[in-house]
Specification:
The complex is a heterodimer of chains A (73) and B (630). With 73 residues, chain A is an all-alpha fold. Helix content of chain A is 86%, strand content 0%. In chain B, strand 5 and strand 6 form a beta hairpin. The longest helix of chain B is centred in the middle third of the chain and has 56 residues. Classes of the chains: A mainly alpha (73), B alpha+beta (630).
């Protein structure tokens, strides 16, 4: 249990960006669906717009791994 | 790469305009544009009579396209009429469209009637009960109800609610249906109808309306007639289909011939509109791939002798931005044009990213998925798609991209020693570069190194594209690439991956390069550089998605030991592998597309090129390919 601070930090490092990504995608998703209904040719742009916030979660994951490796190893 | 284009001018006597256009259409090489008007050179345009004629031809084209679409598959068989006048073509196209639309409407009506009667099928036995009971339905309002849940308890709940509202003044007959719903018939005196309706709507009980044709019939007659219609409907639908097939046999070839003729005719008229004339001569202007220019000159010389002249306009006379774009890549790279074409076409004179996409997209995909087993499954699916798809179709391109991705996944699977996750380690496969289950940092380093290479290539391509237009900006773009390399090397020296003595010279070199960058790209260049470094970090997704994929595979393999029986465990593991495979293909595809479109293309890609559409004979296949690419 002495490393609980480390594990908590690693969990927060991925959890907070993941929540932020989810929130961003929840806003982009409906707008993208509405745009696609009007203009199906925008599918590529829509996929990109939805994928853009995922960077935050991915960087969060990387930071989380670095925290675990840095603290534990 | 983007094919080199020439702007050509075709000149000849006015009376030769139509035959020259015919020959140019046969050759199918020139993308026609309107020449610049001068005092003596005027755009031909259309007379009011010609415009009226064109409207008539367009109407025929609409009718024939609609008819062929209603016939479904491409019409075959039948006899081709040797000579079709426009009037006859208009008659055939118009009549066929009306007949097919009427048949389609009839088919829809029959299908709708069938669906409606099928909704009442669960009531048939209840109908019979009423009929046999001799219940007098005069002065009675009947509701046909469907309850989602056919449990006794649910039916009792409805009965209790009805009793509370209507007392004993109702009759409720229920019947469980095969779909798990309860079909009920509720009979109430007409004066209680409104109360019952309100109660049912408040309770959320679905009430069906009897089709118009059965309104006012007795219960016994209704059920008999419904059953008779259900039996007759398949034959009527088959009759409609047979009639449609008859039309396809009788007039299919004619329709195809009319479509080709009217589309060709419309293309000729549109080309004619773009011609410019003097009192005695005509001028046609257009774009042609430079390599094909001599073919055009030779063919026109052969057909018209020296009467018609072809000349190439000097590059000073036209703007590169207005030239249409033709992408031409080696056979191996051609499928990847589909990825490039998902974005707007690049401008003429800029860079076609297809060759780079063809190398980096499957490589990044393979590094992310990196599993022999998943790679083999993807290769099998891609091969099946490859053999079942038409040449030059989008499916063919996707299947070939899939094959390239699968090949890289297998190669990196060997390098990681992965076969369906850690199953490879269990059967003796050893990682050659690193084990992804443990080596997070080496994997992250590989991903970021790839990011540096990819981004620097993008910046250098941007510098090469800009070089002709603005040498100072090109220098700035190149310097940005150099700074990314210097910063990456300095970080490696700081982390001990390079000898530490390199750190100071690298930092000094980066500091010296900074002013050159600002001179080249302006005061905002340092901000742009930070954003570029952020782009490099974005490549960490290769490691993140790849690690997630391998961990999921490992979890799937451990399932065999977790569940009680081996058989259950193996089935669960297979299902989990299936899900992981689907995710493992979908997720890297989306992320690699993003890396290319946002991070890589953002450094050099200039969208806005127009599609090369040569004036040629109409063909359904080419038309479909063009529609897909625009």
């Amino acid at each position: 249990m002495e490393n609980y601070g480390l594990y908590l930090s690693a969990a927060l490092a991925i959890a907070i960006p993941a929540l932020a990504t989810g929130w961003a995608q929840s806003r982009i998703g409906p707008a993208a669906a509405a745009a696609l209904a009007e203009k199906p040719e925008l599918s590529v742009t829509v996929v990109l717009l939805i994928a853009i916030p995922e960077t935050v979660a991915i960087l969060g994951f990387v930071v989380s791994v670095l925290i675990l490796l840095g603290g534990g190893g | 790469m983007i094919l080199k284009m020439s702007r050509v001018r075709i000149l000849g006597p006015s009376e030769k305009l139509e035959p020259v256009l015919g020959r140019v259409q046969d050759l199918g090489l020139v993308h026609l544009v309107e020449p610049q008007e001068t005092r003596s050179l005027k755009i031909l345009g259309l007379t009011p009579e010609q415009a009226h004629h064109v409207r008539s031809v367009r109407k025929v084209a609409q009718n024939v396209h609609a008819s062929i679409a209603l016939l479904g598959t491409a019409p075959r068989g039948g006899v081709t009429t040797p000579e079709l006048t426009l009037a006859r073509a208009a008659l055939i196209a118009g009549r066929t469209r009306r007949q097919l639309e009427a048949l389609d409407a009839r088919r829809l009506d029959l299908e709708e009637e069938s669906a409606l009667i099928l909704k009442f099928r669960p009531f048939f036995s209840t109908f019979r009960k009423i009929s046999e009971s001799g219940l007098d339905l005069d002065g009675i309002r009947v509701f046909y109800l469907v309850l989602r849940d056919d449990s006794e308890q649910e039916v009792r709940r409805v009965r209790v609610a009805l009793r509370e509202t209507l007392g004993d003044g109702f009759e409720l007959l229920s019947q469980a249906s095969e779909s798990g719903e309860a079909a009920m018939i509720l009979a109430v005196p007409k004066e209680s109808g409104a109360k019952a309706e309100l109660l049912l709507s408040e309770a959320g009980v679905q009430s069906l309306s009897l089709p118009d044709q059965f309104e006012g019939e007795s219960v016994g007659t209704t059920v008999q007639r419904m059953q008779a219609r259900l039996a007759a409907l398949p034959d009527e639908l088959a009759g409609v289909e047979a009639e449609r097939e008859g039309i396809a046999r009788e007039r299919g070839r004619d329709l195809v011939q009319i479509r080709a003729c009217v589309e060709d005719h419309l293309a000729t008229v549109e080309a004619m509109e773009k011609a410019a004339v003097t009192p005695r001569a005509f001028v046609l202007e257009g774009w042609i791939p430079t390599a094909a220019q001599s073919d055009l000159e030779r063919e026109l010389q052969k057909t018209f002798g020296g009467v018609v002249e072809v000349e190439a306009l000097a590059s000073e006379e036209w703007l590169a931005d207005t030239a249409p774009v033709v992408l031409k890549n080696p056979r191996l790279f051609q499928p990847f044009e589909a990825i490039t074409k998902m974005m707007p076409l690049p401008k003429y004179g800029t860079m076609d990213p297809t060759p780079f996409v063809a190398v980096f997209f499957p490589m990044f995909f393979g590094i992310t998925l990196g599993d022999i087993g998943y790679g083999l499954i993807l290769a099998s699916i891609s091969l099946i798609l490859r053999f079942r798809s038409a040449p030059q179709s989008k499916t063919r391109s996707i299947s070939e991209i899939g094959l390239a991705c699968a090949l890289f996944a297998i190669i990196f699977g060997f390098l990681y020693g992965e076969l369906f996750g850690d199953l490879g380690h269990r059967i003796g496969l050893r990682p050659i570069i690193f084990n992804r289950e443990e080596a997070f940092l080496p994997f992250l380093g590989l991903a970021l190194a790839l990011g540096v290479v990819h981004i620097v290539i993008g910046l250098l391509l941007g510098a090469a594209t800009m070089f002709r237009k603005n040498k100072r900006h090109a220098l700035g773009r190149g310097m940005a690439g150099l700074m990314v390399i210097l910063i990456a090397l300095a970080l490696m020296a700081a982390a001990g991956m390079l000898p530490e003595r390199f750190f100071t010279p690298l930092v000094i070199a980066a500091l010296v390069a900074l002013p050159v960058l600002v001179i080249g790209e302006g005061v905002l260049a340092p901000v742009e550089l930070v954003s570029t470094l952020g782009n490099v970090l974005s490549y960490a997704r290769i490691m993140a998605v790849g690690t997630a994929s391998v961990m999921m595979a490992v979890v799937a393999n451990r399932m065999t030991n977790v569940f009680g029986g081996v058989v259950v465990g193996v089935i669960c593991a297979l299902l989990f592998h299936l899900v992981n495979f689907a995710l493992g293909v979908f997720s890297p595809t989306i992320h690699m597309l993003r890396l290319h479109y946002v991070e890589f293309f953002g450094k050099f890609f200039s969208p806005g090129g127009s599609q090369y559409q040569p004036f040629r004979h109409w063909s359904p296949r080419e038309n479909a390919v063009e529609e897909r690419s625009t």
